[in-house]
């Protein structure tokens, strides 16, 4: 009986000692964020069975490791530098030889800091418009237009961005070129904008004439064929001719304004399709309202008028006429006596410098 019991215990002991430990597999860490410049990372493997690993296809070009299978210990992987804009990531799958256990180790890596442009240059027509520039970046950048005819707000983004810039109409009579810089630290990307000239007419928006009958000459410039249109119903203003010397001059005829009030008429320049390219307003003062100054010296400061809704023109007597409602200092070709006529409307008073002043004639004021 004792022999039987001893034999049973012996069989049980031998049987128990032949049982295998169940396989296990752990890896640390499970995730690694590699620097842009690359480097090495070590994965610690704990296991009681032979293990191999597989690098995901999209990571094989930039992750390298030792070959073959192994048991527990450290496994070293090398990550290449990421010299492109896009971030990237790939998995390394560790697997026991019997296929019973798998563990995943993930490596991610940001892209090189950069600002990418869909287009580096844009060619646009001469009209005022909004220009959209498409860019993407993994940094926060600032948009800096380098010319005053392009304006924009600063923008930031780590995803594709549409940057809107306001482009002014090109009325310079010539094509022009400007740049926009997208800047982040030492990274600068340049967008070049080429803008055609637009068909246009340039003329002063207002012109003031005396109340006398006669002609007036208004300088203007244009780079296209344009038709002059005088406001309908105006019988005191008419077209005479257009002179083309070094600069174009519009010559208009006016009848005398015998009333006590000023009068005005609108001019419009239209292209062949009827679009208005420019407008101007001609205002004629009432006849007879003038002040005559006799002065001496090489220069004189014109008076400054006061009052509500007042207008004045200064004729300096030497062929020069000041822009209307302008008080300015004028230089004469000599220091002799000079007669200055100021045509005005609506003024209630004026201030004047007495230096060089000889006579004031207020009989028609």
The helix content is under 10%
**CATH topology term of the largest domain:** Immunoglobulin-like
Treating each run of at least 4 consecutive H or I residues as one helix, how many helices? Answer: 1
Report the top-level CATH class of the largest domain. Mainly Beta
Task: Look at the helices and sheets and give the structural class.
Answer: mainly beta
Number of strands: 32
By CATH, the architecture of the largest domain is named: Sandwich
* The CATH homologous superfamily of the largest domain: Immunoglobulins
Specify the biggest β-sheet: 4 strands, antiparallel
How many structural domains are formed by the residues? 4
Identify the quaternary structure here. single chain
**Order of strands across the widest beta sheet?**
1-3-6-5
Q: Write down the overall geometry.
A: rod-shaped
Radius of gyration: 44 Å
Sheet-strand content, in percent, reads over 45%
